[in-house]
TrEMBL record:
Its EC number is 2.5.1.-. Gene3D superfamilies: UbiA prenyltransferase (1.10.357.140). One of its GO terms (molecular function) is prenyltransferase activity. This is Prenyltransferase, UbiA family.
């Protein structure tokens, strides 16, 4: 009989994967800033509740994805992952406990989301339901999203675009799709995180019959698309910085680009090979913080004069 280890606090934190929270925290803060810019008021407590709701929903996705990959035999110790990123192989934890942890994170995320509602707001609830369905079907169900060549697009739109739209709707009780355009740097940045990860997994995903976009296109073509998206990412971020902050903000933004040119060059020339995975994932994650957080700062500064 197999002996399982107890779930520790360290395991719980690793399953949640705080390193990835940039993909939920930044879009949720952006949604709050869009509310304020549109003339709505929101308390610090409610703002915190919205951010935590998004963080716990992302923790749920991360945990359930680890569980599903383990159950389906997708991951292995040879996948060029840190121990903290391949927990179920380095720690003998009962799979059912990992699945239940993912569902627990999901429940907490839903509770925080409901607590932020002042009244029954069907538009926010609909967006919330879409979010929950995405969490549950990303790596589970008959047709998991992560097994299809739409995973990158789906992740970018849902996390980078739908999160700020959902946050905005909680207070405004409106669904404003123009926010999707303003959120383009987040959509592209999050899509690139997924693309970097999936491109490193082409060989093992083929064995698991996982038809990601990288598998369908092949490493040569996905690298071309990766570079094109990086260029579009930089251009969209710079344009929106100019739109919200003016020429002075754009000059500061370009100076930051110049100072970090070696770092940016590194992601542009990434091999997307399995052996370079850890470095590449760290680089694309830090670039999301560099570009998208600076965009948030510009929007926040633009609110001071209003």
């Amino acid at each position: 009989m197999k002996t399982y280890q107890k779930m520790t606090l360290k395991n719980i934190i690793n399953f949640a994967n705080p390193k990835s929270f940039v993909a939920s925290i930044i879009p949720s803060i952006f949604g709050i800033l869009m509310l304020i810019k549109s003339g709505y008021s929101i308390s610090l407590l409610r703002s915190l509740g919205l951010v935590l709701s998004c963080v716990f929903l992302q923790s749920s996705v991360n945990t359930i994805n680890d569980y599903s990959d383990f159950i389906n035999g997708v991951d292995s110790k040879e996948d060029n992952l840190k121990e903290s990123d391949n927990i179920m192989f380095y720690n003998c934890i009962r799979p059912e406990n990992v699945r239940n942890l993912g569902l627990f994170f999901l429940t907490i995320g839903i509770v925080f989301g409901l607590l932020t509602l002042e009244s029954i707001n069907y538009k926010s609830i609909i967006i919330g339901i879409i979010g929950v369905i995405t969490v549950l079907n990303y790596s589970m169900g008959p047709f998991p999203i992560s097994y299809l060549p739409v995973g990158e697009v789906f992740s970018g739109i849902v996390m980078g675009g739908l999160i700020p739209i959902g946050v905005f709707s909680v207070i405004s009780e409106k669904i404003d799709f123009t926010i999707m355009g303003y959120a383009m740097p987040f959509i592209i940045g999050i899509s690139l995180i997924m693309m970097s990860n999936n491109s490193s997994d082409i060989e093992k995903d083929k064995k698991a019959n996982r038809n990601t976009l990288a598998v369908v296109m092949g490493r040569k073509n996905i690298r071309i698309l990766y570079k094109i998206l990086i260029i579009v990412w930089f251009i969209s971020q710079s344009y929106l910085v100019l739109y919200f902050g003016g020429y002075k903000a754009l000059i500061i933004d370009l100076i930051i680009f110049f100072l970090k040119r070696k770092f940016i060059f590194r992601i542009f020339t990434a091999s997307l090979l399995p052996q370079d995975r850890v470095r590449q994932m760290m680089d694309i994650g830090l670039t999301n913080i560099l570009l998208n957080f600076s965009y948030l700062v510009i929007i926040a500064i633009s609110l001071i004069g209003e």
